[in-house]
Amino acid sequence: MPSLFAFLHHLAAFAFVSVLAVEFVLMRHELDARTARAILVADAVGGASAGAVLVVGLLRVFYFEKGAAYYFHSIPFLAKISLFVLIALLSIYPTVQFLSWRKDLKAGRAPAVSEPVRRRIRSILHAELAALVLLILNAALMARGIGHAA
What we know:
mainly alpha
């Protein structure tokens, strides 16, 4: 059972990373209705995969791995959780912007997104990707027992 949950955790994590990369690339282009719809779908998949990462990860911590006492004494684990929360908070602004496009898309129009808003969204997505790199580093450290307080 622990292997299944490890697999699900990693699958959801890779899906989340992929979604952020897709959103980042799609925001480079002029937004037509098709691209905007793709971003909305990607963002929904990203939210679902982030939720799965969280739920499956917590199940692993509390039920399928070394136990909460072990993980909550691990500096890399605490850093991972902190980075996950940071990424979640950063994702609020782009998601709110993407959801605001629904009215235009239902009317068959491309959303009107100003260049400053587009740059802000791309900057936030870039920051989320950078935070993910640090999160992955901490995952590797944690898996090796580095930074675990005795």
